[in-house]
Amino acid sequence: MSDVIAKSTITCPECGYQSTDEMPTNACQWFYDCEGCGAVLKPKPGDCCVYCSYGDVKCPPIQAGKACCG
């Protein structure tokens, strides 16, 4: 089993601002406030969290091959 990556860089679809953050390992993050423009990001349809939608690394449960918290 491969190691789970705990950090992901989110890119805001509104302004392009990027932020690298530690992802929660036991919960999904459904909302994310962009530090660049203040937009509130929500998961795209079919994604379980903002990291799966806008991050460069999927959330830890998805990386581990498990269903996410949805």
UniProtKB/TrEMBL annotation:
Domain of life (superkingdom)? Bacteria
Matching entries from InterPro entries are given as: GDCCVxC
Q: What is the protein name stated in its UniProt record? A: GDCCVxC domain-containing (Seleno)protein
> Species name for this entry?
Hyphococcus aureus
